[in-house]
Design goal:
mainly beta; Lipocalin; eight-stranded antiparallel barrel; globular
Length: 196
């Protein structure tokens, strides 16, 4: 009898979770993944990744009960310099042939005033560390074709040395040719998957 009650409770929880959780996919055409790093202390080099994908599971209202998974194709790095991009993909930086993807999987999402903080496992090369993004949620709209869309802006900072992206040179004044701090920004538009 107790076993039947437990099974019924678990089934109820599973059904209620699936009923309220919705799948949202990244619309790459209206999204971007960019980064910025200091060069020789005096300027910044900016870049982006052309290929990425992601799935968010939430009810369209309460993001704190949701989950996020995101993947970036390292081989699509773009800094508007073919030579530099080739160097960045090499073993001295990302080693893209061996480690072709940068991934993020959320572990906790908490409200922060009108915004959110989303923490999760960030994996680059052979290292996984917990990273927290500051997240702005723009809400949802229905487009002219009947698709429900949601908008987000997220940003964080990482130390590339923590992920074995170690290449650099030292200037005469002791500064680095390539800074260690990397600023990452995402502008993400999601489209709710339609029920089959």
């Amino acid at each position: 009898m107790v076993k039947k009650v437990l099974v019924a409770l678990l089934l109820t929880v599973a059904l209620s979770t699936s009923a309220f959780s919705e799948t949202w996919n990244v619309d790459k055409t209206h999204s971007s993944v960019t980064f910025k790093v200091r060069h020789m202390v005096i300027s910044n080099v900016k870049g982006n990744f052309r290929e990425f994908s992601g799935v968010v599971e939430f009810d369209g209202k309460d993001l704190t009960k949701g989950t996020v998974e995101f993947s970036i194709d390292v081989n699509t790095i773009n800094t508007d310099s073919e030579g530099r991009d080739k160097h960045l993909k090499s073993g001295e930086f990302f080693d893209a042939e061996k480690f072709p993807n940068i991934t993020f999987k959320s572990t906790k999402i908490v409200a922060d005033g009108d915004d959110y903080k989303i923490s999760g496992d960030f994996t680059m090369k052979d290292v996984t560390k917990s990273v927290t993004f500051d997240l702005e949620y723009s809400g949802t709209v229905v487009d002219p074709w009947g698709n429900t869309r949601a908008g987000f802006a997220a940003k964080t900072k990482i130390d590339r040395q923590d992920y074995n992206v170690n290449f650099s040179g030292t200037l005469d004044n002791g500064g680095l040719v390539v800074g260690n701090e990397v600023k990452i920004e995402l502008e993400i538009e999601l489209v709710k998957a339609k029920a089959e």
